[in-house]
Amino acid sequence: MAFFLIDPSRAGDVAVAIFGDPWPGNLVADDYAGYNAIHPARRQSCLAHLMTKAKDLAQQIRLLPVPQQDPKALTFCERVREFLAGCCGLGHARNTGAISVAAAQRQTPRLQKRLRVICRDPLADPAVENLRQRLIDPQRSGAQLFTFLTVNGIRPPTTKPSRACACR
Question: N or C: which end of the chain has fewer CB within 10 A?
Fold first, then answer.
């Protein structure tokens, strides 16, 4: 189910008014701080938002004069986008029955290890470093990246691979 509300406020009390606190359901959401006011039973970070963020940061880096481009930050963004797209693909395979729920769940430790390797080194670019921190911080997206693999019934950020999804 998707629910949209237009409200003049972006405060957490709006999320609480919609969901309640705690909320017994699953929440797939971006990193919008207003959602931190509710405590869902399970939360999944929106991988599509994270992929878009990595893509946008890479584009910003490429717009800089070549001497100012940070190759480590650019490589990081590309690796994050590819990694998250692979995670979406794994979720799609699970949802279509190409792999079992148990097989998808068993992939989680390997994915966590791979993400730690990708995010191992701090980056000089402040915006890219913020994304890196977001991916490893358990208070932000870090603890919510693989919920869709470990909890049956939570879908990846979209229902099928498409151009809009960026999960190809």
Answer: N
